[in-house]
Each structure stands twice: as structure tokens, then as C-alpha cells.
Amino acid sequence: MHFYKEKILSSGQLKRLSEHKYSCTNASLLDAYLQPWWEWLVSKVPLWLAPNLITVVGLIINIATTLILVYYSPDAKAEAPRWACFLCALGLFIYQSLDSIDGKQARRTGTSSPLGELFDHGCDSVSTVFVALSACIAVQLGYYPTWMFFQCFCAMTLFYCAHWQSYVSGSLKFGKIDVTEAQFTIMGIHLISAIFGPEVWRTEMPYINGLQFKYLIGGMTAVCALTSLYSMFSVIFTGGVGKNGSTVAGTSVLSPIIPFSLVVVPAFIIYRKSAENVYETHPALYILAFGMVAAKVTNRLVVAHMTKNEMEYLDTALIGPCMLFLNQYFNFFIKEYYVLWLCFIWVTFDFFRYCSQVCLEICDHLKIMLFRIPYSTDNLSEKNGTSRTQRQRPSKKHH
After folding, report:
1. Angle (nearest 5°) at CA 277 between 276 and 282
2. b/e code 312-331 from CB counts within 10 Å (16+ = b)
3. Is 121 part of the annotated catalytic residue set?
4. Which homologous superfamily does the CATH classification assign to the domain defined by 11-380?
5. Cα dihedral 190, 196, 199, 203 sign
6. Where are the transmembrane segments (predicted)?
7. Share of the chain above pLDDT 90, in %
8. Is-contact 122 299, C-beta < 8 A?
9. Rounded CA separation 262/260 (Å)
10. Residues 6 or more apart from 57 whose CB is under 8 A from it?
């Protein structure tokens, strides 16, 4: 079943994607300590369970636990139940664990493919939005709307820039303090809110008058973000692996800044220009709406990298933000809250339509199934020249 009249990926893109080899360097501090847990966990997973199914189950749990938190505090001001914060911590831990073993399961079953890498990054792009939002709700950042905006879009920006530098250098790079460390920090935030209540973040730190504990989160975010951005832009400005220092697609190393700017800049302008204070009143819905646009653009960047293709600047997901902008321009012909819901519905539909279509096209080209392993794992591993002993060797996180 195809959702578009024409295919998204050309035959040339599909050919280059099938030749794509995953490349990454990982210096994460926590990953080395978590490897035994991941190795034990994947050993308990049935061999018939498809890697992509593991990833999507983790994502569904992550989204569900976050939506429970959003239900109780849609404005990020109301104090959510402590058990909801605990559920968020548990949901994120489950997602983090399952996301870390999907690649191991793929190699264990001899079903590694470029689709697995793309699917993994696609799920991560969505999870980033929900995880950042849940952390803001856990510390009631709705009282500080600009700060909450910064926290959420900072997470989306860092994720996008990680794949931007990958588009330039051809290799994904994880620093000493990266995704895993951020995820466990947010788990800690949820657990603290679950044990002591969200009000604990308003407690003033000893010996420092007027400085609340929640400001530590903002400080940590700023320092870690600046450090990560410095590292990523050092790679970007050094030049790419393409001709004359260009990207893997032979395009300008700065070109990816335009599509993402078309997400962040309108998001901030619409927030500041809203006479009905649509963002301050409904921050969770606003972040989710623009977060899905950011996720769509990030996925297009990942596809551009894996297919060695130029990334187009405009996207159909931008129709959503345009609805809000035009409604403001024409003096709020429709109540902004309703337009925001319309925007969210459109961008979510557009995101899943795009991802589904791309996955189906890749499945057709590679003759594989998205959520099923069609052959016996022993036969498949022999076909790929992989023995059972080889399949059980430690491996990196992704496919």
C-alpha cells in the first residue's frame, strides 16, 4: 500500500541505500557499563522477534507513559501524580533498553539492513520530542514558557545536528556525554519528582539564596548543549567527505541548516506573536505539533544521508505551522487552539505517511519485511555466512 501517487525514493536512491554501510564512533561513558545488561537482555529475546518490532514496542511504551503525564498536566504547571512520573522513568528505561538491543537482535538473527538503521533513527527522532516534553512537565516548566521552549527545542536541535554532522562526515559520532547519559539523567529527574514530588525542584539550594534546584537543569542543559554543538560544528566546518569538502551527497555542508530553521524560527515567532497565548496556554500540544515537524525534517536528513541525496528545503509538514501563521496574519479568523489541533493532526499524519511510504519502498527493494523475519534464523544466518557463535558476539548499538 502506497500513500503517495509517486514514489518518494528513486531507483538511484534505493540502489545507494542498499550499498550504505552503518558507521559510528561511540565514546559514551555509560554504554560500556550497560553492555552486559544489553547482552543479557537480547539473549532472552526469541530469535523469531524482528528487530524493528522491538524498537517500535519500546517507542509505544515511551509515548504512552509520556501521554499519561501530559493528560494530568497539559499546561506543564499542574502537579502530575507521582506515579505518573515513575511510569515515565520506567517507560524511558524500557525504551532505552529495547532501542539498544534492536541492532544486536538484527545481527543475532542475520537480518541487519539499512532499513533497520533508518527505522531506529526515526523512532529516536519521535522519542526525543516526548522525552524532552516529559522532563519539562516533571519539573513544572510551564511557569517558565521561554525556558520550556528552549529545553524542548534544544533536544530536537541536538538530535538534528548529530545527523547533520553525519551527513557531512559520513559517520555518526557519540561523545562521552551523549544520548544515553541524557536519557538516564531524565530518568533521574522523573524518579526525583516521583519520590519527593515536583515541588522539590522549587526548593532553594543551601548556601545560595534564591537559586532553586530546577535551575541546575537549565545550567546542565546549556553547558552540555554548547559542548555538543561545538564538537559537531567542528566536524561540519572542517569539511565533508564529498568532493571539495562537501557532504556525502556532494552538497554544501551548510545546506541542512535551512530546513530545520524553517521549523524552529516559525515556532518561536508564532509563540511570541500569539495574542491568545496559544503556546503558554497549551505548551504540551504546541511542543508535540512542532516536534513532529522537526522529527519529519530530521528523518528526511537521515534518508538524504543514507541515499547520498540532496535534501530539499521545503516539506509538506510545514503546512501545519503555515496554518497557525496565516491564522495570525488574518487576525485570528479561527480560535488558535483549534488551529493548533488541526496543525498537530496534519503534521502527525504527514509524518507517519512519509515514514510508512519510505519503509514500504525500502522493503520492496530489499525484499524484506518490516516487522517479521520471514525465514528460519539458522537458514538465514547460513545464507549470510554467519555462524551462531558469530551472531552472539558483542556489537554496537545500532543496526
Report:
1. 115
2. eeebebbebbebbbebbeee
3. yes
4. CDP-alcohol phosphotransferase transmembrane (TM) domain (1.20.120.1760)
5. negative
6. 47-73, 80-98, 118-139, 213-233, 253-271, 283-301
7. 65
8. yes
9. 5
10. 98
C-beta separation of 354 from 118 below 8 A: no
Q: Residue 159: exposed, middle, or buried by beta-carbon count in 10 A (0-12, 13-18, 19+)?
A: buried
CA pair distance 285, 140, nearest whole angstrom:
15
Phi, psi angle pair for 26, to nearest 5°: -130, 115
Instruction: List beta partners, residue 172.
Output: 24
Catalytic residue (one of 121, 282, 305, 398) = 121
Cell of 227: 559542548
Least confident of 158-172, 199-213, 339-353, 360-374: 199-213
Question: In whole numbers, what is the pLDDT of the chain averaged over residues?
Answer: 88
pTM: 0.90
What pLDDT does 394 receive? Answer: 38
Rounded to the nearest 5 degrees, what angle is found at the Cα of 158, between the Cα atoms of 153 and 162?
Answer: 150
- Predicted local distance difference test score (pLDDT) of residue 390: 37
For the chain, give every domain's residue range.
11-380
Question: How far apart are the C-alpha atoms of 127 and 66, rounded to whole Å?
Answer: 10
Alpha helices in the chain (DSSP H): 11-18, 31-43, 51-72, 82-108, 114-138, 145-169, 179-196, 214-238, 257-273, 278-281, 283-307, 319-329, 336-366, 377-383, 388-391
- In sequence order, the 6+-apart residues with CB closer than 8 A to the CB of 320 are 289, 293, 342, 343, 344, 346, 347, 350
